[in-house]
Design goal:
Length: 152
């Protein structure tokens, strides 16, 4: 992963000298997005950052069960689901003991302020508007890790 100076990073530090690399390899991601190229891009960026436990799904149908079963640390999704209007699924997620610390990132092309504000108020950690650069995504992942204290 590039950080602008040619070195590889994992949570913002030099990858080769980072004692957190083993922890990075234990972090589980779940990518739930209807767009296969978006899932592939995110998976590629995460792998370049040193993460190896990356699950993916094209449907948002039963991801709450997957989160619990697979002990997911970070959920990255589009937020689109006709069964979960008004970000109720995020509110549900935040009430579940096993998922309170789970980081939630939304990747969406929806840009209206009310949608973004609704997501944040419901408990989403970050809302990234597509398109985005790999570097910007890496920075947001690092910020999420600091916020949720996923690596310490």
């Amino acid at each position: 992963m590039g950080n602008g100076n040619g070195s590889r990073t994992c949570t913002g530090k030099n990858y080769a000298d980072n004692p957190l690399v083993r922890q990075c390899k234990q972090i589980r991601f779940l990518i739930v997005h209807e767009n296969a190229p978006v899932r592939k891009l995110i998976k590629s960026i995460l792998r370049n950052m040193g993460f190896t436990l990356i699950l993916e799904d094209s449907s948002t149908g039963n991801f709450l069960g997957t989160l619990k079963k697979e002990n997911v640390h970070v959920l990255i999704c589009s937020g689109k689901d006709s069964d979960h209007e008004n970000w109720d699924w995020v509110k549900t997620l935040r009430t579940q003991e096993h998922a309170r610390k789970t980081g939630v990132m939304i990747l969406s092309s929806v840009t209206d302020k009310e949608t973004i504000l609704g997501a944040i108020q419901a408990g989403v950690d970050d809302y990234i508007v597509m398109p985005f650069s790999a570097q910007a995504f890496e920075e947001r992942i690092n910020a999420l890790f600091q916020k949720r204290q996923l690596l310490s």
